[in-house]
Design a protein that fits this description.
Elements: E1 8-12, H1 17-28, E2 32-36, H2 40-48, E3 57-58, H3 69-80, E4 85-88, H4 103-131, E5 134-139, H5 152-172, E6 177-184, E7 187-188, H6 191-194, H7 208-211, E8 214-215, H8 216-228, E9 233-236, H9 242-249, H10 251-258
Parallel strand pairs: 1-2, 1-4, 2-3, 4-5, 5-6, 6-9, 7-8
Bound molecules: NADP nicotinamide-adenine-dinucleotide phosphate.
């Protein structure tokens, strides 16, 4: 019956990329899924392609609309009775120089990448605490440890996730809850295509770094292993994940490497 038999797993950003791969992997391992993102028809496509499609629920949500999360959580609890794992995966990347990025675009990115996951976690947490069990998973990034050119707000949001969820982990462990941070390097998904530029425009291309990245399936498999083992944090990806260690051990060297990195601002 797999590693997650009948576990209730809520995944955001389940309509594409890593979230879609996570959904397929959790379903194979016996989990019942709640699939969330904005595009209902894409969620439905993902659900229909799964084993035991009837056991899974599509629950469209917008990560910028935190006020809707308590009611959505109540809907999930009414149907499944509990949430075993919340995977905060949905997010948007960035391709813009800091000097150019409009403040409203920066705020919108923080809403999706930071305040959204925080608000959804806070909606789910009381039921997990009441049961004395549950796991919150956060798909952060290598960018949660280093900041590279063109990613100032995205890196800030991912760094913020680490501070928040490290604190949360320290608060909830006594109650039996776990928090797992996942830091992927480059993964071949639509993330760079969907990344936003200085004025909020879509980047609209898949960068060469991502074309050379690992598959979403590999990222999902490493994530499931980490969740099953109750790991606090993992990195997953190619050589770029060494940046985390380099930054920790030799920050000056890391800085000299990173400042030479270029990014393409789009079409
Ligand atoms: N790919 C990489 O190289 C990489 C590396 C490190 C970390 N990550 C992280 O991995 C996560 C998934 O990204 P991905 O690579 O799979 O990219 P992706 O294919 O672009 O998927 C992003 C997902 O987020 C959802 N989303 C975007 N804005 C949303 C909003 N306002 N409300 C609700 N859902 C929203 C999208 O669904 P809808 O459009 O349907 O809303 C989509 O399902 C992100 O947190 C990203 O930062 C990716």
């Amino acid at each position: 019956m797999g590693r997650f038999p009948d576990k209730v797993v809520w995944i955001t950003g389940a309509s594409s990329g890593i979230g879609e791969a996570l959904a397929a992997a959790f379903a194979r391992e016996g989990a019942k899924l709640i699939l969330s993102s904005r595009r209902a028809e894409e969620l439905e496509r993902v659900r229909q392609g799964m084993p035991r499609a009837d056991e899974h629920l599509c629950l469209p949500l917008d990560l910028t609309q935190g006020a809707t999360f308590p009611a959505l959580t109540a809907q999930v609890l009414a149907k499944y009775g509990r949430i075993d794992v919340l995977v905060n995966n949905g997010g948007v990347s960035q391709r813009a120089h800091a000097v150019d990025a409009l403040p409203e675009v920066e705020r919108a990115l923080m809403e999706v990448d930071y305040f959204g996951p925080v608000a959804l976690t806070k909606a789910v947490l009381p039921s997990m605490l009441a049961r004395g069990s549950g796991q919150v998973v956060v798909i952060s990034s290598v960018m949660g440890y280093v900041g590279t050119p063109g990613r100032s707000t995205y890196a800030a949001a991912k760094h913020a996730l680490h501070g928040y969820f490290d604190s949360l982990r320290a608060e909830v462990w006594r109650a039996g809850l776990k928090v797992t941070l996942v830091c992927p390097g480059y993964v071949l998904t639509s993330v760079s295509d969907n990344a936003v530029g200085a004025r909020g425009e879509k980047h609209g291309q898949t960068d060469a770094t991502h074309l050379r990245g690992i598959t979403a399936e590999r990222c999902a498999e490493a994530t499931l292993r980490a969740v099953a083992r109750g790991k606090e944090e993992i990195t997953v990806g190619g050589f770029e994940t060494w940046a985390v260690l380099l930054k920790r051990l030799l920050p000056g060297v890391a800085s000299r490497v990173i400042r030479r990195m270029k990014f393409s601002a789009g079409k």
